[in-house]
Specification:
With 754 residues, this protein is of the alpha+beta class. It folds into 6 domains: 2-68, Arc Repressor Mutant, subunit A (Orthogonal Bundle), CATH 1.10.10; 72-136, Nucleic acid-binding proteins (OB fold (Dihydrolipoamide Acetyltransferase, E2P), Beta Barrel), CATH 2.40.50.140; 141-207, OB fold (Dihydrolipoamide Acetyltransferase, E2P), CATH 2.40.50.700; 229-476 and 549-614, no CATH class; 482-534, no CATH class; 627-745, OB fold (Dihydrolipoamide Acetyltransferase, E2P) (Beta Barrel), CATH 2.40.50.140. The protein is 33% helix and 26% strand. It contains 18 helices and 33 strands. The protein has a 5-stranded mixed beta barrel. Helix 4 (212-220) runs antiparallel to helix 16 (583-623).
C-alpha cells in the first residue's frame, strides 16, 4: 500500500515537471509551489532523491530539478556495438541516440545511462550524443576467454557488444590458465580511456571441452543454472501423488477423454486438451492446465526461485527449468495415466470460431494418451494405418480438433492477426554436446491445433478477469511506431508492395502483405523486416491490446510450469474463484505486479537472447569443418557492409562487401540491393547464390561466405588434393586466401594439363 502511495506521488511530481510552463526549480521552490507542508518536506526530498537515482528526473549542478527530455538529456539503456560505438535506447520516445566511441565514457552494454544530446545539423534525422552519467551498471559479472602474461592477465568478453578487455591483476587469476573460459567479477568499472578491472571467480573449463561453450552463454546472461539446496529440499518434500484430500472441491474430469500433444523430447507437459461435438453442431473444447500453484505457494523458496528465473530456458543439449524436475517433470506435469490437479477452461465454440459459452474451474484429470506432434500429423495428414489402429479411441477427436483449429485460425486471420511463417530449426547434438546435424522443419497441423487452442483459451481467461476489474497480468503488444511503419512501407515498395494506412496501421494490413508474399523468393526477408519493425511483446499489469494477434484481451495462462506470469495468474484466479480475493489481497497484487511483470519481461528477453546465441554458436560449430566447401543459398538480407546468405539448413552467413572484388558495389538503401558500379550487376533479397564457406568461428558465432565462380569448385578440389590434406582447416583457409589474392591482382592461374 505504501509503495503504491509513493508511486502515485512520483507520478504527480513527474506530471508537474512535464508541463510546458515548468522551468527547473530548486527544492525550496518546488516545496512551495507544490504546497508541501514543512513536516512532509523530508518525504518530498526522499522522493526526489529516489527519482534522481532512477534517472526519471535530473538534478543540475545548480541543484535544480527537471525532466531529462526538457534539458537536452536522454535517459535509457546503452546498447554497445562490436565496432566500438553504441546507441542509447530511450525510456521516453522512440528515437535512438547514436554514441560515438570517444563519447561512451566508460559505459558498458546494458547499463542505464544519461546522455547529453549534441546539436544536430539542419535536416539531420538521427540524434547523436555523449554519455554523461551511468545510473545503474548491468554487468556485475562477465564471461570471456582468459589470456595472461607474467605479471597480469586480461579477459576478452564473449558478448560481442561488450567491447574492451578486462584487466586482471596477477593476484586475482584464481588458478585460471591461458585460453580457459572464465567468469569475472568487475572490481573497477571502465572510465574514459581506461579498461575495466576484475577478478576471476569461476573457471568454466578449457575452450574446447564438452559443454563449456553453452555454459559460457548461460553464465553470460545470468541464467540461474543450479537450484539452491534448500529449494531442492522443498521440492523433494512435495508429494509425488495426488491424494483424495487434494481433490476436494474440484470437478472430477478423470473420465473425460483427453490427450497431451507435445514434441518428442518434452518432459514438462503443461496442457491437455479434450473435445466433443455437441448436438447443435458446436464444439465443447476443454483446455486443462497443470495447477502448479497447489504445490508452489506464494512466498515459498520454490516461488522465490521461480520468480528469479522467470522462465525455463531451452538449449540443444539441455533444458534449464523454472521449477525443479521433481515438480516440472513429475507431479506438475500432466503425465498420461496419472491423476493430476488442473485448471480447466471448458468452451463452447460455434462453427465460426466464436465462444458462445465457457466455464473456468479447478479440476482433477487423468490424461489418456501422451501424443506427439509427429504422430498426430501422421494420423491426420498421412493416414497412417498403424497409428490409427493404435489410437482408434481418439481418432474422431483428432479429426474434430483439426476441423476446429482451422476454423479458429481462419477467424483469427479475418480479424487481422499477423502470422509470420518462419521455418523452425532443430539442432541435433551428440552426447558431448557437439552439433551433428541441423534440420529445417515447418509447423504442421498438429502444432496448429495446440497453438490455436491455447490462443483461444488465453483470450477467454484474459477477457473474463479484465471485466472483473481485478489486478491481472496481461501479455501486451503496443502499436508500432509510425516512423518505422513509414520506413517499412518504403522498403516494401521496392518489392512492389504497399502497406495500407501505414501512418496508423492495422495488423490486418500487415497480414495482407504476408499473404501476398507467400511462396515468393523474398518471403523470409520481408517476414524478418516486418518483425523487426514491430514492438516487442511484454508482460504488464496494465491492460493494452495485443497488436500482433489483433486481440483486445490477451494473457499467458497455459504454461505455469515454465513461465512465471502464468503461475502468477493462476494464483489470482484461484483466490477470486474461491472468494478469498479480499480488498487487502487486491491491494497486495496491485503493489507487486508492476515489478513482477517488468522482471519477467527482462528474464524472457535474456532467455531468448541466450537461446539465439546458442543456436548461432552451434551452427558455426557445425560448419567449422566445412571451410572451403560450396553451397547454394538465398540472399536473406542486404546491408551497407555486405549481404547475408541463408542455406537450406537455415545456416546464415555474411558475404562481406570487401570480398566482392569483381566490381565496386554500392548499397542502395531505398531498394535494399547492391549494385555494381561498372557491370551494373544487381544483388537483391531472394536471389539464389552459389557461395563458398571461408570462415566459421564458434567463438565469435560468425560465418563468412564468398561468392563462388563457376570454376571455383573444381579448382579448389584439385588444389586441396595437391596439398595432401583433406581435413586441415588451415590448408583450406590458406588456399582460399591465395585464390582471393591472385584474383584480386589479376594474375592468371596456370592451365591444367588435359
Amino acid at each position: 500500500m505504501l509503495s503504491k502511495i509513493m508511486e502515485e506521488r512520483k507520478q504527480k511530481i513527474l506530471s508537474f515537471m512535464r508541463e510546458e510552463s515548468y522551468k527547473p526549480l530548486k527544492f525550496s521552490e518546488l516545496a512551495v509551489i507544490m504546497d508541501v507542508p514543512k513536516e512532509d518536506r523530508p518525504v518530498l526530498q526522499e522522493l526526489l532523491d529516489e527519482m534522481v537515482t532512477e534517472g526519471v528526473i535530473i538534478k543540475t549542478k545548480k541543484e535544480r530539478y527537471g525532466v531529462p527530455e526538457k534539458m537536452g538529456l536522454v535517459v535509457g539503456t546503452f546498447q554497445g556495438n562490436s565496432r566500438g560505438f553504441g546507441f542509447v535506447l530511450p525510456d521516453v520516445g522512440n528515437d535512438d541516440v547514436f554514441i560515438p566511441a570517444n563519447y561512451i565514457n566508460g559505459a558498458m552494454h546494458g547499463d542505464r545511462v544519461v546522455a547529453r544530446l549534441h546539436k544536430s545539423m539542419p535536416g539531420e534525422k538521427h540524434r547523436e550524443g555523449e554519455i554523461v552519467r551511468i545510473i545503474k551498471r548491468a554487468n556485475k559479472t562477465i564471461v570471456g576467454r582468459f589470456d595472461k602474461s607474467e605479471h597480469f592477465g586480461f579477459v576478452t568478453p564473449d558478448h560481442a557488444r561488450l567491447t574492451g578487455d578486462i584487466y586482471i591483476p596477477k593476484d586475482y587469476f584464481n588458478g585460471a590458465e591461458k585460453g580457459q573460459k572464465v567468469v569475472v567479477k568487475i572490481t573497477k568499472w571502465p572510465e574514459k580511456n581506461r579498461n575495466a578491472e576484475g577478478r576471476i571467480i569461476e573457471v568454466l573449463g578449457n575452450e574446447g571441452d564438452a559443454g563449456v561453450d553453452v555454459m559460457s552463454i548461460i553464465r553470460a546472461y545470468g541464467i540461474r543454472y543450479e537450484f539452491p539446496e534448500e529449494v531442492l529440499n522443498e521440492a523433494k518434500a512435495v508429494p509425488n501423488k495426488v491424494s483424495e484430500e487434494d481433490t476436494v472441491g474440484r470437478r472430477d474430469l478423470r473420465n473425460l477423454r483427453m490427450v497431451t500433444i507435445d514434441g518428442e523430447d518434452a518432459k514438462d507437459l503443461d496442457d491437455a486438451v479434450s473435445i466433443e461435438e455437441l448436438e447443435n453442431g458446436n464444439f465443447r473444447l476443454g483446455v486443462h492446465i497443470a495447477d502448479v500453484t497447489h504445490y508452489v505457494k506464494e512466498g515459498s523458496l520454490l516461488d522465490k526461485e521461480a520468480l528469479l528465473r522467470g522462465t525455463s530456458v531451452y538449449f540443444p543439449d539441455r533444458a534449464i527449468p523454472m521449477l525443479p524436475r521433481e515438480l516440472s517433470n513429475n507431479i506438475c506435469s500432466l503425465n498420461a495415466k496419472e491423476d493430476r490437479l488442473a485448471f480447466s477452461v471448458m468452451m463452447e465454440v460455434d462453427n465460426q470460431g466464436n465462444v458462445v459459452d465457457y466455464e473456468i474451474f479447478e479440476s482433477v484429470i487423468n490424461v489418456d494418451e501422451r501424443m506427439t506432434y509427429t504422430d498426430v500429423y501422421k494420423i491426420l495428414e498421412e493416414d497412417d494405418e498403424e497409428l490409427k489402429k493404435r489410437y482408434k479411441n481418439h481418432l474422431n477427436d483428432f479429426y474434430n480438433m483439426k476441423k476446429l483449429a482451422l476454423i479458429l485460425k481462419a477467424r483469427r486471420r479475418n480479424r487481422g492477426s499477423v502470422d509470420f511463417d518462419f521455418d523452425e530449426t532443430k539442432i541435433i547434438v551428440d552426447e558431448k554436446g557437439k552439433t551433428v546435424d541441423i534440420i529445417r522443419y515447418k509447423m504442421t497441423i498438429a502444432n496448429n491445433i495446440i497453438e490455436e487452442f491455447m490462443l483461444l483459451c488465453n483470450e477467454v481467461v484474459s477477457e473474463h478477469f479484465y471485466w472483473l476489474g481485478i489486478p491481472f497480468v496481461y501479455r501486451v503488444h503496443e502499436d508500432p511506431d509510425p516512423e518505422k511503419m513509414e520506413n517499412l512501407n518504403n522498403v516494401l515498395s521496392t518489392f512492389g508492395y504497399r502497406l495500407k494506412g501505414y501512418r496508423d496501421v492495422h495488423p490486418k494490413a500487415l497480414q495482407n502483405v504476408l499473404d501476398r508474399i507467400k511462396g515468393k523468393p523474398e518471403e523470409k526477408a520481408i517476414n524478418t523486416i516486418i518483425l523487426r519493425s514491430l514492438q516487442k511483446a511484454r508482460y504488464s499489469d496494465i491492460h493494452i491490446w495485443h497488436f500482433g494477434l489483433a486481440a483486445e484481451y490477451y494473457s499467458h495462462f497455459t504454461s505455469p510450469i515454465r513461465r512465471y506470469p502464468d503461475l502468477m495468474i493462476h494464483r489470482i484466479m484461484k483466490e477470486q474463484l474461491s472468494g478469498k480475493l479480499t480488498e487487502n489481497r487486491i491491494e497486495h497484487y496491485k503493489s507487486i505486479l508492476p515489478e513482477i511483470t517488468k522482471a519477467c519481461s527482462e528474464r524472457e528477453r535474456a532467455a531468448q537472447d541466450a537461446e539465439r546465441d546458442c543456436e548461432d554458436l552451434k551452427k558455426a560449430e557445425f560448419m567449422a569443418d566445412k571451410v572451403g566447401e560450396y553451397f547454394e543459398g538465398t540472399i536473406s538480407n542486404i546491408t551497407a557492409f555486405g549481404m547475408f546468405v541463408e542455406l537450406e539448413n537455415t545456416v546464415e552467413g555474411l558475404v562481406r562487401l570487401s570480398s566482392m572484388d569483381d566490381d565496386y558495389y554500392y548499397y542502395d538503401a531505398n531498394s535494399l540491393c547492391l549494385i555494381g558500379e561498372r557491370t551494373k550487376k544487381i544483388y537483391r533479397i531472394g536471389d539464389k547464390l552459389n557461395v563458398q564457406l571461408v570462415k566459421a568461428s564458434p567463438e565469435t558465432r560468425q560465418i563468412d561466405f564468398m561468392i563462388a565462380d563457376d570454376t571455383d569448385n573444381d579448382d579448389f578440389t584439385s588444389e586441396l588434393a595437391a596439398t595432401g590434406s583433406k581435413n586441415g582447416k588451415e590448408n583450406k583457409q590458406e588456399i582460399i586466401e591465395k585464390k582471393k589474392i591472385l584474383k584480386h591482382i589479376g594474375a592468371k592461374e596456370k592451365k591444367k594439363r588435359k
